[in-house]
């Protein structure tokens, strides 16, 4: 399990790096109202990349740092494909990394 945690942590760092390279990483956080959304992926209140940056990555880092159990499933790549399109050359690297994340979570369970 420790190897899987390290792989998930590494994948999160790569996702963050790819988002920065593709200029999908923002300096300003979403509003408190946007962050309070209960809709999956906060689609009603923020762009997907903001959800990745401000909700997904921090929550996963908290899980890892706390030594808590990883999620039992992940389906982030299909959502990203829906948002960005499967053949968008700009986001191809991000889609690949999100798929790797999904696979790591699947393999951990």
TrEMBL record:
Organism per entry: Pseudomonas marincola
InterPro entries (alphabetical): UCP006257 (IPR007384), YqcC-like_dom (IPR023376), YqcC-like_sf (IPR036814)
Domain YqcC-like: 8-104
Any one GO biological process: single-species biofilm formation
Protein name, UniProt field: YqcC-like domain-containing protein
């Amino acid at each position: 399990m420790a190897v899987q945690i390290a792989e998930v942590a590494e994948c999160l760092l790569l996702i963050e790096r790819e988002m920065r390279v593709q200029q999908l990483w923002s300096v300003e956080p979403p509003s408190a109202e946007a962050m309070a959304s209960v809709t999956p992926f906060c689609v009603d209140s923020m762009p997907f990349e903001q959800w990745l940056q401000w909700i997904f990555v921090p929550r996963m880092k908290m899980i890892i740092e706390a030594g808590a159990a990883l999620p039992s499933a992940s389906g982030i790549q299909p959502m990203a494909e829906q948002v960005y399109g499967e053949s968008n050359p700009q986001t191809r690297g991000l889609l690949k990394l999100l798929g790797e994340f999904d696979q790591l979570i699947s393999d951990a369970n």
